[in-house]
Protein backbone atom coordinates (compact mmCIF):
# COMPACT_ATOMS: atom_id res chain seq x y z
CA UNK A 1 0.00 0.00 0.00
CA UNK A 2 1.54 3.35 -1.01
CA UNK A 3 1.36 6.58 0.96
CA UNK A 4 -1.57 7.83 -1.05
CA UNK A 5 -3.52 4.65 -0.35
CA UNK A 6 -2.60 4.80 3.32
CA UNK A 7 -3.80 8.37 3.49
CA UNK A 8 -7.11 7.46 1.83
CA UNK A 9 -7.54 4.43 4.07
CA UNK A 10 -6.89 6.59 7.14
CA UNK A 11 -9.46 9.12 5.97
CA UNK A 12 -12.06 6.44 5.29
CA UNK A 13 -11.36 4.87 8.67
CA UNK A 14 -11.91 8.20 10.38
CA UNK A 15 -15.16 8.84 8.53
CA UNK A 16 -16.56 5.38 9.15
CA UNK A 17 -15.41 5.47 12.76
CA UNK A 18 -17.56 8.56 13.15
CA UNK A 19 -20.53 6.64 11.66
CA UNK A 20 -19.97 3.80 14.06
CA UNK A 21 -19.35 5.91 17.13
CA UNK A 22 -22.38 8.03 16.37
CA UNK A 23 -24.67 5.04 16.37
CA UNK A 24 -22.73 3.00 18.89
CA UNK A 25 -25.88 2.46 20.91
CA UNK A 26 -27.03 0.05 18.19
CA UNK A 27 -23.73 -1.19 16.74
CA UNK A 28 -20.85 -2.57 18.72
CA UNK A 29 -18.17 -5.08 17.72
CA UNK A 30 -18.43 -6.78 21.10
CA UNK A 31 -22.22 -6.97 21.17
CA UNK A 32 -23.99 -8.88 18.43
CA UNK A 33 -27.47 -8.19 19.83
CA UNK A 34 -27.98 -5.66 17.04
CA UNK A 35 -28.03 -8.53 14.53
CA UNK A 36 -31.78 -8.75 14.12
CA UNK A 37 -32.91 -12.29 13.78
CA UNK A 38 -35.22 -12.18 10.84
CA UNK A 39 -36.67 -10.30 7.89
CA UNK A 40 -39.17 -7.89 9.43
CA UNK A 41 -42.02 -6.09 7.61
CA UNK A 42 -41.00 -2.52 6.85
CA UNK A 43 -43.67 -1.59 4.28
CA UNK A 44 -46.56 -3.38 2.60
CA UNK A 45 -45.15 -6.63 1.14
CA UNK A 46 -41.59 -5.42 1.83
CA UNK A 47 -39.31 -6.96 4.46
CA UNK A 48 -35.87 -5.99 5.74
CA UNK A 49 -33.04 -7.99 7.28
CA UNK A 50 -30.55 -5.91 9.25
CA UNK A 51 -27.07 -6.68 10.41
CA UNK A 52 -23.72 -5.04 10.92
CA UNK A 53 -20.82 -5.61 8.59
CA UNK A 54 -17.29 -5.61 9.92
CA UNK A 55 -15.23 -3.91 7.23
CA UNK A 56 -11.94 -5.77 7.50
CA UNK A 57 -9.68 -3.25 5.77
CA UNK A 58 -10.97 -0.45 7.99
CA UNK A 59 -11.61 -2.35 11.23
CA UNK A 60 -15.01 -0.73 11.74
CA UNK A 61 -18.65 -1.78 11.53
CA UNK A 62 -21.37 -0.45 9.25
CA UNK A 63 -25.08 -1.26 9.09
CA UNK A 64 -26.19 -3.34 6.10
CA UNK A 65 -29.76 -4.15 5.11
CA UNK A 66 -31.11 -6.66 2.62
CA UNK A 67 -34.65 -6.11 1.39
CA UNK A 68 -37.19 -8.60 0.14
CA UNK A 69 -40.48 -7.91 -1.65
CA UNK A 70 -43.31 -10.35 -2.22
CA UNK A 71 -45.51 -10.47 -5.28
CA UNK A 72 -47.89 -13.10 -4.00
CA UNK A 73 -45.81 -16.28 -3.68
CA UNK A 74 -43.05 -14.84 -5.86
CA UNK A 75 -40.21 -12.92 -4.19
CA UNK A 76 -37.55 -10.45 -5.24
CA UNK A 77 -34.43 -9.95 -3.12
CA UNK A 78 -32.73 -6.57 -3.38
CA UNK A 79 -28.94 -6.80 -3.14
CA UNK A 80 -27.08 -9.72 -1.63
CA UNK A 81 -25.40 -8.32 1.45
CA UNK A 82 -21.84 -8.07 2.68
CA UNK A 83 -18.94 -10.26 1.51
CA UNK A 84 -17.76 -13.19 3.60
CA UNK A 85 -19.07 -16.64 4.41
CA UNK A 86 -20.33 -15.55 7.83
CA UNK A 87 -22.70 -13.02 6.24
CA UNK A 88 -23.97 -15.55 3.69
CA UNK A 89 -24.51 -18.01 6.54
CA UNK A 90 -26.48 -15.31 8.37
CA UNK A 91 -28.60 -14.35 5.36
CA UNK A 92 -29.49 -17.66 3.71
CA UNK A 93 -31.40 -19.43 6.53
CA UNK A 94 -33.28 -16.23 7.34
CA UNK A 95 -34.23 -15.83 3.70
CA UNK A 96 -35.43 -19.44 3.59
CA UNK A 97 -37.65 -18.76 6.60
CA UNK A 98 -39.00 -15.54 5.09
CA UNK A 99 -39.82 -17.26 1.78
CA UNK A 100 -41.81 -20.04 3.43
CA UNK A 101 -43.50 -21.90 0.59
CA UNK A 102 -42.91 -18.96 -1.75
CA UNK A 103 -40.25 -18.84 -4.45
CA UNK A 104 -37.24 -16.57 -4.86
CA UNK A 105 -37.49 -15.44 -8.47
CA UNK A 106 -35.16 -12.47 -8.82
CA UNK A 107 -32.15 -10.95 -7.14
CA UNK A 108 -32.28 -7.28 -8.14
CA UNK A 109 -28.90 -5.62 -7.63
CA UNK A 110 -28.63 -1.88 -7.15
CA UNK A 111 -24.95 -2.09 -8.18
CA UNK A 112 -21.98 -4.44 -7.93
CA UNK A 113 -19.91 -3.25 -4.95
CA UNK A 114 -18.82 -6.11 -2.71
CA UNK A 115 -21.18 -5.16 0.13
CA UNK A 116 -24.13 -5.54 -2.27
CA UNK A 117 -23.20 -8.83 -3.96
CA UNK A 118 -21.51 -10.60 -1.03
CA UNK A 119 -23.77 -13.65 -0.83
CA UNK A 120 -24.65 -13.76 -4.53
CA UNK A 121 -22.75 -16.97 -5.31
CA UNK A 122 -24.17 -18.76 -2.26
CA UNK A 123 -27.67 -17.60 -3.21
CA UNK A 124 -27.55 -18.85 -6.79
CA UNK A 125 -26.15 -22.18 -5.59
CA UNK A 126 -29.09 -22.56 -3.24
CA UNK A 127 -31.68 -21.18 -5.70
CA UNK A 128 -30.50 -22.45 -9.10
CA UNK A 129 -33.48 -21.02 -10.99
CA UNK A 130 -33.14 -17.48 -9.65
CA UNK A 131 -32.40 -14.70 -12.14
CA UNK A 132 -30.12 -11.76 -11.39
CA UNK A 133 -31.05 -8.33 -12.69
CA UNK A 134 -28.90 -5.20 -12.84
CA UNK A 135 -28.39 -2.18 -15.06
CA UNK A 136 -26.55 -2.74 -18.29
CA UNK A 137 -24.03 0.01 -17.42
CA UNK A 138 -22.95 -1.94 -14.34
CA UNK A 139 -22.29 -5.15 -16.27
CA UNK A 140 -18.56 -4.63 -17.03
CA UNK A 141 -17.82 -4.11 -13.33
CA UNK A 142 -20.09 -6.73 -11.75
CA UNK A 143 -18.81 -9.36 -14.15
CA UNK A 144 -15.18 -8.44 -13.48
CA UNK A 145 -14.40 -7.24 -16.99
CA UNK A 146 -13.08 -4.02 -15.44
CA UNK A 147 -12.24 -3.21 -11.80
CA UNK A 148 -14.20 -0.42 -10.17
CA UNK A 149 -11.05 1.61 -9.56
CA UNK A 150 -10.53 1.84 -13.32
CA UNK A 151 -13.52 4.18 -13.48
CA UNK A 152 -12.82 7.81 -14.35
CA UNK A 153 -13.33 10.04 -11.32
CA UNK A 154 -14.07 13.73 -10.87
CA UNK A 155 -11.86 13.97 -7.74
CA UNK A 156 -8.55 12.55 -6.49
CA UNK A 157 -9.74 10.64 -3.42
CA UNK A 158 -11.59 7.88 -5.23
CA UNK A 159 -10.30 4.45 -4.16
CA UNK A 160 -12.62 1.46 -4.28
CA UNK A 161 -10.29 -1.44 -4.93
CA UNK A 162 -11.88 -3.02 -1.85
CA UNK A 163 -15.23 -3.14 -3.62
CA UNK A 164 -14.17 -5.65 -6.25
CA UNK A 165 -15.02 -9.30 -5.57
CA UNK A 166 -15.36 -12.05 -8.12
CA UNK A 167 -18.98 -13.18 -8.44
CA UNK A 168 -18.71 -14.14 -12.10
CA UNK A 169 -19.64 -17.78 -11.37
CA UNK A 170 -23.09 -16.51 -10.34
CA UNK A 171 -23.63 -14.57 -13.54
CA UNK A 172 -23.98 -17.00 -16.41
CA UNK A 173 -25.72 -15.37 -19.36
CA UNK A 174 -28.85 -17.50 -19.04
CA UNK A 175 -29.29 -16.26 -15.47
CA UNK A 176 -28.62 -12.55 -16.04
CA UNK A 177 -31.20 -9.94 -16.93
CA UNK A 178 -30.39 -6.34 -17.76
CA UNK A 179 -32.35 -3.15 -17.45
CA UNK A 180 -31.17 -0.16 -19.47
CA UNK A 181 -31.92 3.48 -19.98
CA UNK A 182 -32.94 5.97 -17.33
CA UNK A 183 -36.23 4.65 -16.00
CA UNK A 184 -38.51 1.80 -16.91
CA UNK A 185 -40.62 -1.09 -15.77
CA UNK A 186 -38.54 -4.08 -14.60
CA UNK A 187 -41.06 -6.17 -16.56
CA UNK A 188 -39.08 -5.00 -19.63
CA UNK A 189 -35.79 -6.56 -18.48
CA UNK A 190 -33.96 -8.56 -21.14
CA UNK A 191 -31.16 -11.10 -21.54
CA UNK A 192 -27.64 -9.78 -22.26
CA UNK A 193 -27.92 -11.48 -25.65
CA UNK A 194 -30.89 -9.24 -26.42
CA UNK A 195 -33.20 -12.23 -26.57
CA UNK A 196 -36.53 -11.43 -24.94
CA UNK A 197 -38.31 -14.70 -25.57
CA UNK A 198 -36.43 -16.79 -23.01
CA UNK A 199 -36.83 -14.39 -20.09
CA UNK A 200 -38.27 -16.17 -17.06
CA UNK A 201 -40.46 -14.79 -14.28
CA UNK A 202 -40.67 -11.02 -14.01
CA UNK A 203 -42.72 -8.85 -11.65
CA UNK A 204 -46.22 -7.93 -12.86
CA UNK A 205 -46.18 -4.93 -15.17
CA UNK A 206 -46.48 -1.73 -13.18
CA UNK A 207 -45.34 -3.30 -9.91
CA UNK A 208 -41.60 -2.59 -9.94
CA UNK A 209 -39.74 0.16 -11.78
CA UNK A 210 -36.05 0.95 -11.86
CA UNK A 211 -34.54 4.42 -11.92
CA UNK A 212 -30.92 4.91 -13.06
CA UNK A 213 -28.91 7.06 -10.63
CA UNK A 214 -25.25 6.96 -11.73
CA UNK A 215 -22.38 8.62 -9.88
CA UNK A 216 -21.54 6.33 -6.97
CA UNK A 217 -21.35 3.53 -9.54
CA UNK A 218 -22.05 3.73 -13.29
CA UNK A 219 -25.06 1.45 -13.27
CA UNK A 220 -26.46 2.29 -9.83
CA UNK A 221 -30.26 2.08 -9.76
CA UNK A 222 -33.13 2.52 -7.35
CA UNK A 223 -36.05 0.12 -7.52
CA UNK A 224 -39.49 1.61 -6.95
CA UNK A 225 -41.89 -0.86 -5.38
CA UNK A 226 -45.15 0.69 -6.46
CA UNK A 227 -47.51 -1.20 -4.19
CA UNK A 228 -45.88 0.07 -0.99
CA UNK A 229 -44.46 3.41 -2.13
CA UNK A 230 -40.98 2.15 -1.27
CA UNK A 231 -37.79 3.21 -3.03
CA UNK A 232 -35.00 0.67 -2.59
CA UNK A 233 -32.02 2.92 -3.19
CA UNK A 234 -28.81 0.98 -2.54
CA UNK A 235 -26.05 3.56 -2.06
CA UNK A 236 -27.68 6.53 -3.81
CA UNK A 237 -27.99 7.94 -0.29
CA UNK A 238 -27.23 6.57 3.14
CA UNK A 239 -28.57 7.51 6.55
CA UNK A 240 -26.03 7.09 9.33
CA UNK A 241 -25.20 8.41 12.78
CA UNK A 242 -27.13 9.17 15.95
CA UNK A 243 -29.26 11.08 15.23
CA UNK A 244 -29.32 9.68 11.69
CA UNK A 245 -28.15 12.05 8.96
CA UNK A 246 -29.00 11.68 5.26
CA UNK A 247 -26.19 12.13 2.76
CA UNK A 248 -24.70 10.74 -0.44
CA UNK A 249 -22.05 8.07 -0.23
CA UNK A 250 -18.56 9.05 0.88
CA UNK A 251 -16.15 10.50 -1.70
CA UNK A 252 -13.67 7.65 -1.30
CA UNK A 253 -16.34 5.23 -2.49
CA UNK A 254 -17.85 7.39 -5.25
CA UNK A 255 -16.23 7.96 -8.62
CA UNK A 256 -18.30 10.95 -9.71
CA UNK A 257 -19.34 13.13 -6.81
CA UNK A 258 -21.17 15.79 -8.81
CA UNK A 259 -23.18 13.24 -10.75
CA UNK A 260 -23.88 11.33 -7.53
CA UNK A 261 -25.36 14.43 -5.88
CA UNK A 262 -27.46 15.22 -8.94
CA UNK A 263 -28.74 11.64 -9.02
CA UNK A 264 -29.68 11.80 -5.33
CA UNK A 265 -31.50 15.09 -5.91
CA UNK A 266 -33.37 13.54 -8.84
CA UNK A 267 -34.32 10.63 -6.61
CA UNK A 268 -35.99 13.06 -4.22
CA UNK A 269 -38.41 14.07 -6.99
CA UNK A 270 -39.60 10.54 -7.76
CA UNK A 271 -42.93 9.06 -6.78
CA UNK A 272 -42.37 7.22 -3.47
CA UNK A 273 -43.07 7.57 0.24
CA UNK A 274 -40.02 6.09 1.97
CA UNK A 275 -36.53 5.34 0.62
CA UNK A 276 -34.57 2.42 2.04
CA UNK A 277 -30.76 2.74 1.77
CA UNK A 278 -28.57 -0.31 2.31
CA UNK A 279 -26.58 1.62 4.92
CA UNK A 280 -29.19 3.02 7.25
CA UNK A 281 -29.18 3.38 11.03
CA UNK A 282 -32.92 4.15 11.05
CA UNK A 283 -36.09 2.79 9.40
CA UNK A 284 -35.75 4.44 6.01
CA UNK A 285 -35.74 8.02 4.73
CA UNK A 286 -39.06 9.73 4.19
CA UNK A 287 -39.55 11.56 0.93
CA UNK A 288 -39.85 14.80 2.92
CA UNK A 289 -36.50 14.19 4.63
CA UNK A 290 -34.86 13.44 1.30
CA UNK A 291 -36.34 16.58 -0.24
CA UNK A 292 -35.08 18.64 2.71
CA UNK A 293 -31.61 17.19 2.17
CA UNK A 294 -31.82 17.87 -1.60
CA UNK A 295 -32.68 21.52 -1.04
CA UNK A 296 -29.47 22.19 0.86
CA UNK A 297 -27.16 19.77 -0.97
ZN1 LIG B 1 -21.61 1.12 -3.24
TrEMBL record:
Keywords in alphabetical order: Signal
Cross-referenced SUPFAM superfamilies: Metallo-hydrolase/oxidoreductase
Domain Metallo-beta-lactamase: 63-279
Residues annotated as signal peptide: 1-17
Superkingdom per UniProt: Eukaryota
Protein name: Metallo-beta-lactamase domain-containing protein
Species, as recorded: Coccomyxa viridis
InterPro entries named in the record: Metallo-B-lactamas (IPR001279), NDM-1-like (IPR050855), RibonucZ/Hydroxyglut_hydro (IPR036866)
Amino acid sequence: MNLSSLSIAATLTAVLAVFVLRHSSSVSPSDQSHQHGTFVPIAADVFRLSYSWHIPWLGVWAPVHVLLASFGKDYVLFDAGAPGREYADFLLPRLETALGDGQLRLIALTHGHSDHVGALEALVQKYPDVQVVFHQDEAPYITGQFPYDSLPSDHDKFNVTMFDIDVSSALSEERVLHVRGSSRDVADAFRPSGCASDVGWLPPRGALHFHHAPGHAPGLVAYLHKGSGSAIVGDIVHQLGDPPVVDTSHFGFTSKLTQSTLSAKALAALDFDVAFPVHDSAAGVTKRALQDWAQQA
